[in-house]
Specification:
By secondary structure, this protein is an alpha/beta fold. The protein contains 11 helices and 9 strands. It has a 7-stranded mixed β-sheet with strand order 4-3-2-5-6-9-7.
Length: about 260
């Protein structure tokens, strides 16, 4: 017996098998790292395809009823299902400190939090393929200069190459959501960022705190030397700055020699 979707968990079950199989084939590096975490397996539609591959798979869901359903559907793989909140999950302990890829039809009400969880653990997560509400996906992959470019765009693209893969209409789900969906891929960058990531995060969040204002107005409290505010970059608005611009701005405000580990 299939479980009904629960609004409290933001559940919309993917029922289109072609779409599900396409998502399962979208991981580029899972064969290299072997270990995969599925977030929000729900009724196990995507899980079914992942189990056909030679992955060391784990799947986490916060809904006890879904876990019970998965136990019945996959009675020989019950040890891979975890009843837990993915946002509280200890990523280091999950596979004994080894790296793993992340995949899932993410609950839309916590999808941005899942991305920030991955960013916090980027040393452990070389790749992610996830389904998001279309607007959220657009924000993550947005280039500078666009209206959707913001904090999550810069901080994600600082560590990962972000790619939009394909869109999915409401009819692929039960119950159908009132929004369109998109699948995106994040692949961890090999090159170093060029600045302290925590400092970058501070600069980016403050810069976008009032996105319509010039940076000289929003960054005052971070800049010790008022003369810095006369630099050209401070006459810009945050969405006009590329990732490299933000890296340079971070090093301008917090010279690397001053960073204390």
């Amino acid at each position: 017996m299939k479980q009904r979707a629960k609004k409290s968990y933001g559940q919309h079950f993917l029922i289109n098998e072609l779409v599900t199989e396409r998502i399962s084939e979208s991981l580029m590096h899972a064969d290299e790292y072997k270990k995969v975490l599925e977030i929000g397996p729900g009724q196990g539609v995507l899980t079914k395809y992942l189990l056909e591959k030679s992955y060391d798979l784990k799947a986490v869901d916060a809904d006890r009823d879904m876990i019970h359903h998965l136990f019945k559907r996959f009675p020989e793989q019950t040890d891979l299902f975890l009843l837990d909140d993915c946002l509280k999950l200890n990523f280091f302990e999950l596979f004994g400190g080894e790296q793993f890829c992340v995949i899932g039809n993410f609950p839309y009400n916590i999808s941005s939090q899942i991305v920030f969880k991955i960013l916090k653990n980027y040393n452990l997560v070389p790749e992610m393929v996830g389904m998001f509400q279309k607007e959220m996906a657009a924000r993550i992959v947005a280039p500078h200069g666009s209206k959707t470019y913001g904090v999550i765009s810069v901080l994600t693209q600082a560590l990962y190459s972000a790619t939009h893969l394909f869109d999915i209409g409401p009819e692929a789900f039960n119950p159908p959501p009132k929004v369109n969906s998109s699948v995106i891929r994040l692949v961890r960058k090999d090159e170093t960022l060029g600045c302290d990531y925590k400092r970058l995060r501070t600069v980016v969040k403050m810069g976008f705190s009032q996105r319509r204002k010039m940076l000289r107005n929003t960054m005052k409290s971070l800049v010790e030397n008022p003369e810095l505010l006369t630099e050209q970059v401070f006459t810009e608005r945050p969405e006009q700055l590329s990732l490299q611009d933000f890296v340079d701005l971070t090093n301008m405000i917090f010279p690397p020699s001053r960073i204390v580990e």
